[in-house]
Structure formats: structure tokens, C-alpha cells
Amino acid sequence: MTRSRLARRFSDPAFVASFAPGTVGAAYRDFLETTGYSADGLVEVSRLVPSEDDLAHPYAWFGRRVRDTHDIWHVLTGYKADESMGEAALVAFSYAQVGGLGWALIGSAAALKSIRVTGSRLFAKAVWEGYRHGRKAKWISGEDYLTLLHEPLDAARARLGIATPVAYLHAQRELGPELASYLSTQRAANAAAVAPQQIAA
What predicted TM-score, i.e. pTM, was given to this entire model? Predict the structure, then answer.
């Protein structure tokens, strides 16, 4: 497992454009085009202080690796990134893979709140499924991502033991886009409410 700076490679348009159709890399390219996200964006969101990204300690490096590959995990698992339920399910998957109480708290809080907001347990079941799938899958952080991106997507999922998210897909159909993304909708509404107050101040 080399200590390459993956965010730099993933932010190179020529690199992202190089993948053949049907590969993990091609699906990642489609993901970036559809969501408007970028590897650089993940870096900026996660950076707490200017020098933190330069820390050489193995724990810091591993944290950056998990951050830089987060969107590729969205592609591999099939959990949507621009949807609250998809993000919560991937958080649960990530907790099963790499540990970290932060992941557990975020996933659990989203699942519990969803029961009250949606009036059903479908969202919560999708999150629990994400955790179970993360436990069963191969340890994805140990992959050579520069090789993995050239692998056919279906073959990569099969090799890594990433199961089809049946409960998640069922919840998407039953809840619909609005309830599946209720946390994202709330954040947007809160941001819109705060903005006029900031201008007035």
C-alpha cells in the first residue's frame, strides 16, 4: 500500500479521463460530472488548519487516504452522495471498515432521526445494511486504487465482496427523493435562513 497522494491524482482531468467504459474509474468520472464534486473539494472541507495536510504520521496519512477515497466508496457501494440516506449508509459502511466513533455517532444519529421524520424504519434499515455490508466486504482501504480504478466495476464489487444494497434501494423507491434526502433539504433550508441574518449583521 503506497503512500501516494491520491487527491492529486484524482484531481487531474487527464487522469480521470483515461479510464475505459465500464471500469470503476469511468463510474467515478460519471460521479464527478453528475455531482460536481471533486477530490480537491474533499480536501478543502476536511482541512482544519493549513499545515495539517502535510503531517507525515501514518495515522494522519491513513486519515487522508480514507478522505481521498470516500467518493470512490460511493461508486463501489452504490450509495448516492447527494442524498442523506446514501451518505448515512456509507458512513455506517465506513465505520465497519475502518472504525472511528465519529462514523458510528453520525450514522446512528441519522438512522434514529429518520424514524421520526419519515415515519418508517426504511432509512434506518438501509443504514444498518450499510454497516453489515461493510463488515462482510474485503478491507477496501488496503487496495491499490490506481489499479482498482481500471478494473471493471461489477468485477471489482464481486472481488471485494460488496453486496447489492437491497434494503437501501427498496428504501429509495418507497421513501422517494424528498424523504431519502431530508437531511440535505434541512441543511439547505437552514443555510438559506441564516444567510439574510448574516447580511443584516
Answer: 0.77
Residue 154 pLDDT level (bands cut at 50, 70, 90):
very high
User: Chain-wide mean pLDDT for the chain?
Assistant: 81
Question: 2 and 145 in contact (C-beta within 8 Å)?
Answer: no
Separation CA 51–CA 109 (nearest Å): 31
The whole-number pLDDT of residue 192 equals 40
- Report the DSSP beta bridge partners of residue 152: 23
Q: What is the mean pLDDT of residues 69-74?
A: 93
Answer whether 62's CB lies under 8 Å from 11's CB. no
CA distance 186 to 180: 12
CA distances from 193 to 183, 184, 198, 199 (A): 15, 14, 9, 11
Torsion of CA 133, 139, 144, 147, to 10 degrees: -30
Q: Are 136 and 77 in contact (CB under 8 A)?
A: no
Angle of CA points 111, 193, 171, to nearest 5°: 25
Written as one string, the DSSP assignment of 131-172 is HHHHHHS--GGGS-HHHHTTSBHHHHHHHHT----HHHHHHH
